[in-house]
């Protein structure tokens, strides 16, 4: 299982990576492994400003639909359009081509409350 150190993690199994003033958000390798084959990603919040931990979309696998939670407050700028035709990218490359959304974090976005790779690893091994 992959635990990149250049991202922060949530207890709900999302990750966020800040690049300049834009952040990429996706689900973790652990989450995609637990979910199984992803068949659809539904994100209807593009252009909206959401609070931390607010639902920004859903991810669908063969047997269930799971909510996706925003790691920090911010505006949803863009969704990964490639996932419309290739939702399996989330399974194949969750930290790269399988990113879900780009966000402009709020000025008071609390990255310090998120988990680093070691803390996330400890969480899923409990």
CATH class: Mainly Beta
Q: What percent strand?
A: 25-35%
**Helix count, DSSP H or I runs of 4 or more residues:** 4
CATH architectural type: Beta Barrel
Question: Largest sheet, described in full?
Answer: 6 strands, antiparallel
The succession of helices and strands, N to C, reads EEEHEEEEEHHEH
Number of domains: 1
Count of strand segments: 9
Strand order in the largest sheet: 1-2-3-9-8-5
Q: In the CATH scheme, what's the topology name?
A: OB fold (Dihydrolipoamide Acetyltransferase, E2P)
Low-confidence stretches: none
Taken from the alpha-carbon principal axes, the silhouette is globular
Radius of gyration: 13 Å
Q: Could you say which structural class the secondary elements and strand pairing correspond to?
A: alpha+beta
Q: What is the assigned CATH homologous superfamily? A: RNA polymerase II/Efflux pump adaptor protein, barrel-sandwich hybrid domain
State the end-to-end CA separation.
16 Å
- Kindly state the mean pLDDT as a whole number? 96
The level of helicity is: 10-25%
Blueprint (SSEs and pairs):
Blueprint (H helix, E strand, L loop, with lengths): L7 E2 L4 E6 L2 E6 L1 H7 L2 E5 L6 E2 L4 E7 L3 E5 L4 E6 L2 H4 L3 H4 L8 E5 L11 H8 L2
Antiparallel strand pairs: 1-2, 2-3, 3-9, 4-6, 5-8, 6-7, 8-9
Q: Can I get a quick summary?
A:
This protein has helices spanning 29-35, 82-85, 89-92, 117-124; strands at 8-9, 14-19, 22-27, 38-42, 49-50, 55-61, 65-69, 74-79, 101-105. The chain has 126 residues and is of the alpha+beta class.
């Amino acid at each position: 299982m992959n635990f990149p150190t250049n991202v922060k993690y949530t207890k709900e199994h999302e990750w966020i990576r800040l690049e300049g003033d834009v952040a990429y958000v996706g689900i973790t390798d652990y989450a995609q492994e637990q979910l199984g084959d992803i068949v659809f990603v539904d994100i209807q919040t593009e252009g909206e400003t959401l609070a931390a931990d607010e639902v920004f979309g859903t991810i669908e696998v063969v047997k269930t639909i799971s909510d996706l939670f925003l790691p920090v407050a911010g505006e949803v700028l863009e969704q990964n359009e490639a996932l419309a035709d290739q939702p399996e990218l989330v399974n194949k490359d969750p930290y790269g081509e399988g990113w879900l959304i780009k966000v402009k974090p709020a000025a008071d976005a609390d990255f310090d409350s998120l988990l680093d790779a070691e803390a996330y690893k400890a969480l899923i091994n409990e």
